[in-house]
């Protein structure tokens, strides 16, 4: 049984160099890193497999390089290393011990979620330009918006859909046509959503929180109690 988000807000641990730790329940943990280190500091004491070395050397942006390396530090804190991580043919990350993982990186933040259940996580910067592109991912026939801050609200919607998208093990999903999120209020810190595509009909509980630095964290976990609204 999942804990309500309101009950876990006070469980954030401010442990350096972590930015936040969210212990959602005994089987699910989210770790967030605020990237303030240099590339040199981040690459020190980190062992990478050959695939990761190749990926890192192919990244032209230092921001992406530092995001990549900070995720490896988060893995280390969680008791894993780069050799425990691999990817399926669609780019979905997996852990060799059978636990589920999802990875996110946005500007100076990176995060991972590890769980016994399938999970997805996303961190996004709250930016006004999301209003201009909302028609690409908001489907007004299935998605509902309130009168709250439209930028933050749309960022939650995007983050929720991104999180559910990351759970789906194959390719071909459309944010607009195949993924939906139900009405929510910021005070609730939660919502519900679903992915419906061909034979795949899965329902999820959505949790979100806002960082003071102007970022939004969203994550998705399976739910069996939702009804489809179409």
Strand order of the largest sheet: 7-11-10-9-8
Structural class: alpha+beta
Main beta-sheet annotation = 5 strands, antiparallel
Helix content: 10-25%
Strand portion: 25-35%
Reading the helices and strands in chain order gives HEEHHHEEEEEHHEEEE
Helical segment count: 6
What is the count of structural domains? 1
Average of the residue pLDDT scores = 90
Instruction: Give the overall silhouette.
Output: globular
What are the segments in which pLDDT stays under 50 over at least 5 consecutive residues?
1-15, 226-230
Terminus-to-terminus distance: 27 Å
| Rounded radius of gyration (Å) | 17 Å
Which key features would you list for this structure?
230 residues; five-stranded antiparallel beta sheet; four-stranded antiparallel beta sheet; 6 helices; globular; disordered N terminus; disordered C terminus
